[in-house]
Request: fold
Amino acid sequence: MDFIELKDNAEKELEKIAKSSELKSFFDKYLGKKGEIRQLFSLVKELTEEEKKKLGQEVNEFARNLEEKIAELEKEIRRKEVETEEGSQSLDVSLSNEKIETGHLNPLTLTRREMERIFELMGFSVVDGPEVEDEWHNFDSLNIPEGHPARDALSLGKTYYLKNGNVLRTQTSSAQTRYMQAMTPPIRIVIPGKVYRYETTDASHEINFYQIEGLLIDKDVSVANLKAVLRIFLEEFFEREVEIRLRPSYFPFTEPSFEVDMLCTVCDGKGCSACKRSGWVEILGAGMVHPNVIKNGKLNPKKWKGFAFGMAIDRLAMMKYKINDVRLFHSGNLKFLKQF
Amino acid sequence: MLFSYNWLKSFFSGELPEPKKLAEILTLHSFEVESLEKKGTDWILGIDVLPDRAGDCLSHIGIAREISVLLNKKLILPKVKINTKGKGSISVEVADSKDCLRYIACAMDNVKIGSSPKWLKEKLEACGLNSINNVVDATNYVMLETGQPLHAFDFNNVSGGHIVVRRAKKGEKIMTLSEKEYILNENILVIADSNMPMALAGIKGGKIAEISNKTTKIILESANFNAKLISQTARKLNLRTDASVRFENNIDPNLAEIALNRVISMIEEIANGKVVSKISDVYKSKAKTRKIVLEIKEVSRIIGIEIPKKDIINILVKLGFGVKETKSKLLVEVPTYRQDIIIPENLIEEIGRIFGYEKVVEELPRGYLEPIKRNESTYWQNKARDILKELKFTEIYMYSFIGDEEKNVFQLKAEEIVNPVSAFYNYLRPTLIPQMAKTIKENLKFFKDIAVFEIGKSFTKDKETFTLSGGVSCCDFYCLKACLNTLFDKLGVKNVSYSLIKDKSFWNKGKTADIIVKGEKIGNIGYLSMDICQVLGLNKNVVYFEINFEKLEKNCSRKKTYEAISYHPPALRDISGIISDEVSVDDIIDLIKKKGGQLLKSAEVFDVYKGNGIPQGKKSVSFHLVYQSEEKTLDSKTVDSLRDGLVNELNQGVNWEERK
Reply:
């Protein structure tokens, strides 16, 4: 067989190869120790030096070329074989083992942490206050003196008393003056914690729940600052654009006082059952710290101004997770808790 | 309070905005309009008048005054004309003018009691009041119009025609109009005749001098009582009325006269009554206007935007304040009907709300970029929560209260709540364990494997302590102990040991340990006493723990140092021995650690056995020992000699008899 013929045959054969076993035979046939290319060299003897050199070069090049093609084809065949093999052994990916149990944190913890995170980023330190308070801190320090209707409303209706005359705090604001006395302004703190109300429990009332109180004391603090901090907090918390409005309200410990409404996130203000058709959802109470409270914190109210706000963590958790019954948080019900 | 749109409109010439629009304006600048309902040709607005404004705004004139300021419309008050005049006077005696700031009385005769005209009935009903008879309706109407509660007595039942405003005597009784009897005391102010109380002052009238169909002669009362006294009495008697709600928030004493004149003219008109006495007016110290100095720059300092001086003055004047201007200050005279305005900040609130908070442009507070202070307590609590969650615990929250059952069964000392919501919540919890047991019991109805915890306050006399408690149904003492050891390790708590509890408590005495850190007890781990499990029907295999978190926290540490990893293979050896039951495994481990040498990397118990083949009072204990060097691969001769040396030490130290 001459070289041209051999070249031609080899190329034709190679095109037809589809299995790795065939490729192996093909390799042996042409490039093996006793393969046809080797045998070509036996013909060489009859040629001139010049011809020998030329043919040698051509044959070597052809052999190299063929080796490359074989290697390429081998990869290609292997790829196809793997694909076929893997395809024939595919998993039923709709199946899985039983759910792997992890632990769970109470949604109130999750909500509280998120709130603390946002306020810490805005420069508010997280502090605690006692749950059992004396009457002075719970009422008087907050400008709710004996005989004040708000005092009566709380003390004769909503407050738990202990035998020694102490009370279970009715709001986290009770800790405000402690920190005014202990810290040097400017003061930026949030006080999260458990508060207590004498209530008949229902889907929106609990005998103990969680509040977070915010307090900023500085030389120049205004309603404009309060508005900015609250809107930014709510936007971070709800992870969406938020529109708020301040309505006049009344708290003995702030003046002016506000109720802060948020444009309903369910209907975007169009009016739905979540916002009782009003388009707005009442979300927290706030105001500029009353001069008497600043005085009770042993600071000069002429020099120092401040804002304060308070919101129920339970309520924001309910909004965030669409929980419809506040009692679930303290129920210890694992069917509820395992969802978080 | 419910307000009639048409009634409000009657104080203005011309139209008001649509009810919905009006409600929105009031909500943003005055009070929240909570409901709006169409009723015939009228609209009813449910307005949540703020407590500090109850003195002037629980009335149609009060709200109309707000509207007149907000819409810049002139307020037209009803003209009052009295046609009859009387002689003589009603004798009024006020025992203490601090209790009763003002008392005006007037007698009318020839009164024809009957039903009210239709317009009057409709207005009362629109505002949620029932029509009773023309005289009572007139007093109620004037209250809804002006905010001044009024009362009418049947003259013939007022013994001696004499009125005394005094504190009740202890044990005196009164039957109110709603036929409920109250036993009174010295803290309660009453309106009495010469003999007995006729009314709970400022709260409710009594049956004795009730206006009936037979009444022809009446005494009208228009008074002003001490707000604190009325507030406390109403709440103590649990009898809050339209009158008490108004009195408890400081009504203007000057209103009493205006309201009385108004009601007299109405009774002349609709009940044909004629005034037959002079007006008796006991008014010892007349209410005066208050003066407040307002620094103009304080307004923008607090509100946060510049409000022009002329706007400030304009708002105050429209609200009825007198204003005198100096360069940087305003001298503001507060009308007596605004008893809530005491300090400059009150004025700033008025200016702010009328001007409109929506016009305040948001501005973030400025300050130094001081880093926040880490709250160590919160930090470690959160860390513990996360670790326990990793250990597959679920966090529960429970009430701070426990009831008699928990207190008695667990034999607890607990702080008592004077006014508990119910017998289930009589005490502050001194421990979280009883509730933990109950929670696990409830959940065992639905789940098999339960691991729960809470970090919350527990309470003892004069002290509240953050407490970490938990319970597991799915593993035993040793397994829970392993969980706690992981928790301690991750919190950087070192030197933790356990020893069997000594005293009897709600814990099972033989199966509970004190958890000790550096010699101080910080908590317990173990099972509940068998009695308690039986009485409460608890699963006795549940293991609990309770840790004083504040004591634990003192031992927490963020410090962590890397220990070099050895690249030489470890050599493992086991030892088994028989030892007196009195020697605890911890003691043996301590000794092993002390005597094991530097190359001993760890010693772990893998078997403890008592019973067959082991003498009474003894136990068999087995350890895995791991020897390793950082420098070289240990040959078996070296390791064996280390092991044998250790066995020898154990033998001498704790009488360890090796089992071959």
